[in-house]
Design goal:
The chain is of the alpha/beta class. The chain has six helices and six strands; from the N terminus they run ααβαβαβαβαββ. It is 28% helix and 12% strand. The chain binds iron/sulfur cluster. The site of iron/sulfur cluster has 11 residues, from helix 5.
């Protein structure tokens, strides 16, 4: 971290355990990619050297849900695939997060048909919606940063009276700025 260069060898730092835990959590959000269509290509692009999602500690894509805490749904989801997606979500580690990437995952997109799920939030709790068809990799990174800010603020999603996880429902603005973080709207 470079701290050792600024501090003497016998320096003692004090902090709170929850801050250390949150720092570790926000710096190691491991995605479980559920990429079914073209949005998945943009998802892959975030790992390339240009976008370098490793800067945020999220380069470790896990294809085992038990080793992941961020589900990224990228692309349209067929009705037949939904039980598979739900099973993956249930097998993921807690606390877990969900990003719905692109118009198809969030609304069905142009596929207004009975065979395509018209929004995965009908079946799993979505924390961040990323608009676009497809969203650029910067938008996905913006979504990951939004989750990091929630973890920083100890915004672990509460559970409802029925014991089910409450979604955060954060909607990123279309065409998020690439220079500074965009505003977020909780519950919209
Ligand atoms: S939102 Fe657009 S780019 Fe993404 S999966 Fe749907 S059609 Fe493809």
């Amino acid at each position: 971290m470079g701290l050792e260069a600024a501090l003497t060898a016998d320096t003692i730092l004090t902090t709170q355990l929850r801050r250390v835990v949150n720092w570790a959590r926000r710096s190691s959000i491991w995605p479980m990619p559920f990429a079914t269509a073209c949005c998945g290509i943009e998802l892959m692009a975030t790992a390339c050297s240009w976008y370098d999602v490793a800067r945020f500690g999220s380069e470790a894509m896990r294809f085992s849900p038990r080793q992941a805490d961020l589900l990224i749904v990228a692309g349209r989801v067929a009705a037949k695939m939904m039980p598979v997606l739900q099973r993956i979500y249930q097998q993921m580690a807690e606390p877990r997060w969900v990003i719905s990437m692109g118009a198809c995952a969030s609304t069905g997109g142009v596929f207004d048909t009975y065979a395509v799920v018209q929004g995965v939030d009908q079946f799993i709790p979505v924390d961040v919606y990323i608009p676009g068809c497809p969203p650029r990799p910067e938008m996905l990174i913006e979504g990951i940063m939004a989750i990091q800010r929630i973890i920083d603020n100890e915004g672990i999603p509460p559970k409802g009276p029925d014991g089910k996880r409450l979604p955060l429902g954060i909607a990123l603005q279309q065409g998020a700025a690439r220079i500074k973080p965009v505003g977020i709207t909780v519950g919209s």
